[in-house]
Known about the structure:
With 285 residues, the protein is α/β, with parallel strands linked by helices. The protein contains 9 helices and 15 strands. The strands form 3 sheets. The protein has a 7-stranded mixed β-sheet with strand order 9-10-11-12-13-14-15. A 6-stranded mixed β-sheet has the order 1-2-3-4-7-8. The chain has a two-stranded antiparallel ribbon with strand order 5-6. A hairpin with a 2-residue loop joins strand 11 and strand 12 (205-209).
Amino acid sequence: MRIYPIETGNFKLDGGAMFGVVPKSLWQRTNPADSNNMISMSMRAMLIEEGNRLILIDNGMGDKQSDKFFGYYYLYGDASLDKSLAKYGFHRDDITDVFLTHLHFDHCGGSIQWNKNRTAYEPAFKNARYWSNSNHWEWAIKPNPREKASFLTENIMPIQESGQLHFVNIPEGDFLRNSALGFDVFFVNGHTDKMMIPHINYKGKKLVFMADLLPTVGHIPLPYVMGYDTRPLLTLEEKATFLQRAADEEYYLFLEHDADNELCTLKHTEKGVRLEKTHTFEDIF
Length: 285
């Protein structure tokens, strides 16, 4: 097995929304805001090469939305999915599986693209199976008013219409062992219903793709919960459970949204679980 970090692009979001009830005087120490109160965010995907499978976990916003839409999110930098794949010698047509932690637009927007004539949408990964789970899929196609702006029909329904949609099993508890993708999956419900957090055994270490359970290292303290979460008190419980386990078992956390840090490790302190160290992917793996 080989794993690669895939940079699909960078954007900005309102710092207050990203940290909920936490005052700016605290969160700006780790996530400094610009003059518009926006903080820098990445959309870092993960590529897993194992045998004849090439699995992409999440894929950023894509490029099919309008200039007006992208204008809300202050895109910056020159990183892209195709450039990142090419860096490691791959093309999007090589992807065999696309695993979507959840269906918010900044995680799944790259799943679908315009056709050549810009008359219809089509899968951006024509040879891939797309993986979600049945509970989250139903949640996304019948969105609540709070999340409606994050679940975009053009990102979601063409996956089903293509015939490439598949569902992973939903466990009786919150942990699925040895999923159809070959890794374990932790299911959480605070951010959105049945978001999936992959746990991958890699080179003798446990590597965890954090999605929106832990967007940045600035979100490690328990109360630092996004205003976007649908059930913030549940997020607190899920974070507490996960962070204890991550510190105990020395997980390496792969950060999807941290513009400055690819990986981090945690430690126990008198104040609770805190950051131990940040790492580059290349330095560890």
